[in-house]
Each structure stands twice: as C-alpha cells, then as structure tokens.
Specification:
The chain is of the alpha/beta class and 434 residues long. The chain contains 12 helices and 20 strands. Helix 3 packs across helix 4 and helix 5 packs across helix 6. It binds guanosine-5'-diphosphate (GDP), 6-O-phosphoryl inosine monophosphate and magnesium ion.
C-alpha cells in the first residue's frame, strides 16, 4: 500500500511544507519522524500563512491523522505553544495529533549546551538554530542523561530529573559557565505540567503506524531539514543531529522500507543554506541578493538571512540517489525570472581534478570550485502559469536540464507560495518536465 516520503534534497527550507500540504489530501496519515523545533515549514492555505515547527503539515486537513514519532526530539513547551497558536487560528487539534512516548525530551540544559558548544573542533561556528537539538540527540545516544516523553509519566521521573539537573549543573561549570544552576525541583514541576497537558496526545506511535501500514492506510512521511544536513551523509560537522536524508524515514518512524512506494525529492530551483559550512555555489553578490529578495530568503523560525546561490546539480544528484528519489518537486521557480542568465553547477574542480561525486570530507567541498553550465534566463513572470507547456520556453529548458542532471523526472513545479501556484506535470509528456 502506498506510503510517500517527502525529502529535502538540499540544505533545508526547500518548501517541503507546501508539498506535504498538497499531498495530504491523497493520504490518511502524515508523519514527522526526525528533527525537532529546528524545522520551520510554511503552509499557505485560504489566504493565511502558517509556520509549523513540530506539528505535521497535514494538520489543516480534517480527518487526517498527524503523528510525531520517537525519532523526533521534543520540546514540550514548543509543541504546546504551537498547538495553542494553531487552535487560536481555528485549526482543530485533538485526537488528530498523536505523539510518541519514545520521543526524547529537550530540557533547559540542552539550550545552554547548544549555546556553549555551537562550534566544531576547528572552532568554527556550526550556526545551529539554538533549539537544543544536538545536545538532546547527544544525550539520547549517550543514554545516561536521556529522558523520553513516556518517562514523564513514571514514578521515578522526579528523582531522575533531579539527578540529571545536578549533573548538568556540574557540566556547565566544567564548560566555563558556573553561573548556570539547574533547579531539579523546579524543572520537575514545569515538565510535570507539560506532561499533564500533552497526555491526551501521547501514545505508542510505532504500534499505531505498523498497524496502519499493515492495514493498507496511505501514509505520508514529512522530512525535516535536508539531505545535505544529514548527520551521516551530509556536510559533517556542519549538519543537524538526525538522519535528515531519505535514509532516516524507517529509523525515525519504525515503519519498514518495504512500505515506502514513492519518494518525492523537494528542491529549490536554486540553492540556499542557513548557518555555517561550505556552499560551493554561494553567490555573495548581486545575484545572491536578487534571489534573497525575490525568494524572501529569511529563516522561517530564526529569521536569519539565508545564504543564496546557483543550483548545484552535483549535490542534488547525490541527495536524490541517497534517498532513492522517484520524482522531483522543483520549488520557487518564479524567483529566477528576470535574470539575464542562469548557472547550474555540473561538476567540481578539486585540486585540479574534475569531480562529479559529492565529496565526503568538508575540506574537499570547501576547496571545490564549481564548474558551471550557463543557460539563458527568461524575463517573464511565471506566478500565474498553471500548465508546464505555458511556461516560457527558456524556463522549460532550464528545468529539463536540471532534471537530466539530477537524474529524476519532475512531477511538480512550484511558482509561488499558494496552493494554487502549482503545476503538476503530465506523466506522459516527453521529458517529464514540459
Ligand atoms: P520548508 O522548511 O522546506 O517547509 O520550507 P520553508 O517554509 O522554510 O521555506 C520555503 C518558503 O518558500 C516559504 O516561505 C514558502 O511559503 C515559500 N514558497 C514555497 N513555494 C514557493 C514558490 O514556489 N515560490 C515562492 N516565491 N515561494 C515559495
Ligand atoms: P527545515 O525543516 C534549514 C541547520 C542550522 C544549522 C544546522 C544545525 O525548515 O528545512 P541544529 O539546530 O539542527 O543543530 O542546526 O542545521 N538547520 C536548518 N536549516 N532548514 C531547517 O529545517 C534546518 N534545521 C536545522 O541552520 O546550520
Ligand atoms: Mg524551513
């Protein structure tokens, strides 16, 4: 039975939220399975803009079950705020949102650790979202100081949290900030209150999803971040702390790969990145500025200006292969209108050698000089186009080249943030992008 995965193929913010919202009507269940409140997914519906961090982007469709699984690191305060904000705007949230009792919980010390340790061993800043994501995943893997959502309902929760608070206070002093003291009793009371308010949503989502998959329910998996931020396969150490590429779906959700029947790779028609780390096609010039302005490229949650650059086909092809991507959704094509010419990176030159495999070491990526192919730009605005054949021929030409270089057909082209500003490409067209 069909399960669809939506995976970002760049460094995040590829407009996954829009695609998930669009695909939700063909599914029964929408699942967030990794990351946490570092994600900011935008959905524009009924003339209103919503920014989601933890709640799956399927929440706007009545009758659809939304699930946050054990692969997510959960800040209970963020989730409660998000639920309240959505409820205030008329979005019904009740039993249609369930949260895994296996999800690891973010505590106040995780924010402090994020602040004190936002750098890799070379001293460079990773530029995290400061949401405590990495430190919480570190405790999960380390096990000793980890607390899962289900633990909040057990008798020994108070004792455990008090013990961890003491240990974390010592850790702060060791990290050079002796002023920070965690009051275990206060943290316990605060989190016991969160636990009480979240209780109606908390359950074993693994059992729920396995039953649903075996019963043939249509499941949509919503990736957060992007493949190049994957902890194992991304531009380490300038990555997030979860498997944000296609490889993370089963691990984060507990649903076996054999249920995944379609993988949708989401790409911007250019590239952006927030935070530190190499970005070979970055344009710190008028082109980058043009893209940032037209694409409103500022962080959805953190508001940081996004770094902008040309489409990198070496990176995108790598991500698409890694995720086993079947079809592409190419987003924000409208942003590229009015540029005289466009460049696509087709290879890197590293130490005099032409390379088409994405480098495994960040130092090689840093040294990579992009080899560009230049294509003519189109001058017309495309916001109102609704059929691929009505796009300017030079825009079709650009998409055709992009699709060929990434190695996947294009199924969706997005030419604006609204649901309506979407072109679904006919599957019988000659090149699957026009
Ligand atoms: P996500 O994290 O992958 O869900 O992406 P974000 O929501 O962080 O960033 C994507 C941004 O692009 C949001 O502000 C969307 O409303 C916006 N957007 C989505 N599709 C399009 C499009 O085709 N054109 C334009 N101009 N904006 C778009
Ligand atoms: P969505 O789901 C873009 C980046 C941060 C930083 C790195 C590590 O909206 O696409 P973290 O706080 O996760 O430890 O930060 O990852 N990052 C994102 N960049 N979109 C995101 O999510 C991101 N989530 C994390 O900027 O470089
Ligand atoms: Mg985002």
């Amino acid at each position: 039975m069909p399960a669809t995965c939506v995976i970002g193929l760049q460094w995040g913010d590829e407009a996954k939220g829009k695609i998930v919202d669009l695909l939700t009507e063909q599914h029964d269940i929408v699942v967030r399975y990794q990351g946490g409140a570092n994600a900011g997914h935008t959905v524009v519906t009924g003339g209103q803009k919503f920014k989601l961090s933890l709640v799956p982007s399927g929440i706007f469709h009545p009758g659809v079950q939304c699930v946050i699984t054990g692969g997510v690191v959960l800040n209970p305060a963020s989730l409660l705020d998000e639920i309240q904000g959505l409820t205030d705007r008329g979005v019904a949230i009740g039993k249609n949102l369930i949260v895994s009792d296996r999800a690891h919980v973010i505590f106040p010390w995780h924010f402090e650790e994020d602040r004190l340790l936002d750098q890799c061993s070379t001293g460079e800043s990773i530029g995290t979202t400061m949401r405590g994501i990495g430190p919480c995943y570190r405790d999960k893997v380390g096990r000793s100081w980890a607390i899962r959502l289900g633990d909040l309902y057990r008798d020994d929760f108070r004792q455990r949290v008090e013990q961890i608070a003491k240990g974390k206070t010592r850790l702060m002093a060791g990290m050079g900030d002796a002023k920070i003291q965690f009051d275990g009793e206060q943290v316990y009371r605060q989190y016991a209150d969160y636990a009480r308010r979240l209780q109606p949503h908390v359950t074993d989502t693994t059992a729920f999803l396995l039953d649903a998959a075996e019963a043939g329910k249509r499941i949509l998996f919503e990736g957060a971040q992007g493949s190049l931020l994957d902890i194992d396969h991304g531009t380490f150490p300038f990555v997030t702390s979860s498997n944000s590429s296609g490889v993370g779906v089963s691990g984060g959700s507990g649903v076996p790969g054999r249920f995944m029947t379609k993988i949708v790779g989401v790409l911007k028609a250019y590239t952006t990145r927030v935070g530190g780390g190499p970005f070979p096609t970055e344009q710190e010039n008028d082109i980058g500025q043009h893209i940032r302005q037209r694409g409103n490229e500022y962080g959805t949650i953190t508001k940081r200006p996004r770094r902008c650059g040309w489409f990198d086909a070496v990176a995108a092809r790598y991500s698409a292969r890694l995720g086993g991507v079947d079809v592409l959704s190419v987003m924000l094509l409208d942003v590229l209108s009015q540029l005289p010419e466009l460049k696509i990176c087709v290879a890197y030159e590293i130490a005099g050698r032409r390379v088409t495999n994405f480098p495994s070491h960040v130092d090689d990526l840093r040294r990579a000089v992009p080899v560009y192919e230049t294509l003519p730009g189109w001058q017309q605005e495309v916001y109102d186009v609704r059929r691929a054949e009505d796009l300017p021929p030079l825009a079709r030409n650009y998409l055709e080249r992009l699709s060929h270089l990434v190695g996947c057909p294009i199924e969706v082209i997005s030419i604006g943030p609204d649901r309506e500003q979407t072109i679904v490409v006919r599957s019988n067209s000659c090149c699957r992008c026009c």
